Each structure stands twice: as C-alpha cells, then as structure tokens.
Amino acid sequence: MGIETTRTDRKGNKEFRELPKATDTTSKSKTRKSRRRQKKMSPVQMLFETCKEVFANSGTGIVPSTEDIERLRAVLDKMKPEDVGLSPEMLYFRTQEARRTPAITYLHLYESEKFSMGIFCLPPNGVIPLHNHPGMTVFSKLLFGTMHIKSYDWVVDAPNDTSANENPLEITAPAVRLAKVKVDSDFTAPCNASILYPADGGNMHCFTAVTACAVLDVLGPPYSPPDSDPDGRHCTYFREFPFTSVSVDGVSVPEEEREGHAWLQELDQPEDLEVVGALYIGPEIVDK
Length: 288
What we know:
Number of strands: 12
Number of helices: 4
Radius of gyration: 23 Å
Distance between the termini: 13 Å
Largest sheet: 6 strands, mixed
Structural class: alpha+beta
C-alpha cells in the first residue's frame, strides 16, 4: 500500500505543479511523510502488509492474480536473514551428532484464516519429507545456505487410485499414484523465491539441507487445524517409488521420460521427523 500511495503522490506533484504555493507545499509534505513511513517500515512488516493485500480473498484453490503474485515475490526476493533476526551461527543450525535425522526448528511469525508466515531452520542434513499443500499457493524464500528441493505434480490424465499389477518392491495399500518431477536441484542463497500452486508448480515437495539453511514460507491459505473437518487442507506425506518399479494397466511413459516420473504413496507422518517450535525474536510484526 505504501508503494501505491507514493506513486499517486508523485503523479499529483507533477500534475498540480501550477496550483497555489500553499497547496503545492501540502502535497509535497504528504509525499515526504509517505516516503518516511515506507522507509521506517521493516522488511518483515512490509512482507506482512503485502500478504494481507495479496491474500485478502484467500480460500482453498484460489490463486492470487499474476500482478499480486509478482508483487509478493518481489518483496520476498529482497528478504535477508537479518530482516527476521537470523544468522547461521544460531543454535538452530548446528550439526546434531546424536541424531541420525536432525531436528528442525520452526519459527512462527503469523497465522490467520487467510495466510501464514513462518521460518523453517534446518541444520546440515535436515530433511522436510515429501508432503503436499492442498488448495494452497505457497511462496518459499531461501534466506541462506544450500538446499536440495525435489518437487512433483500429479499426472492429470493418470488413474487417481491405482493398484500395482507387478510388485517387485512389495508395495502394499494404500495405492500409488503417478506424479511428474517438477524440480530436482540444489539452490543456494541468495536466490529468488519459489512458488507452487494448488495444481502445479511442484505442489508436493521435499527439502533437504545440504548446508545449514533457513526457509521463509508464506502459505495462502494455511493448513487447516488438525482437529478440523477431515476434508480440510491437511498435510499428507508421501513415499516415492521409481516409475519402473510398478506396472499398471493403461499407464505408460516414454522410456526417455521415465526418470522424470515416480509413483507416490501416502503414508503417515514419518516417525523420525521432529519439528520443534521456537520463539521468533526478529523485528516485531504489527497487525494494525
């Protein structure tokens, strides 16, 4: 909102240049005050205000306009660790020798029915297992470090509920479903924010910390409360199997594309996944 106000004020100064001096002074004064307010607003407060506008009409399956997506992405792309009170030297990011799978720390910034903001702090080798974001638009900004991201989208024209005819890996119920790899790469900060959508962009993803790293996540809308309607936006975890490990009638993929496909099977939350909540100590977020 501050940016739009500033632009309006600038146009006003140019168009009404010939008005009496007193009026012109008032207009310039308002412009200066608007610029001062924008300069005083912290980056995380600017992110919050932008999210409120972008997700004002948020709901399951509702994707913001292209203009709003780019506006929010532009704010996230500028975010730095110090903007949210983080540094790689903090305890969250230290190697955990005693655990085979390191614990992950989650810093809660804000949540409403429309959107949520939070930060995942991963020590080296920390893993957020493959999971989905039903009906959500999600922005992820790597604040520092190197992370491997692997993401999938469902193959739309493949059967939704498939049982394997051949079962070399002894795959059992629940049934598997075909998905296509969207991303399978390392990312190193600074880099642009990634965006996933309800039906594409890699709605199911897995994060693996190559080095200690922090990810700022914005979800619109957020997950439903755990005790809410079973048909709500609940997180589902998946196990992945190579395409060639399962044979299904009527499902085929050209040989050269098989490595870019996999069978996904729903599973309960992995037992070795430990996410610990911690207090956010960065700049204050004010909900005006």
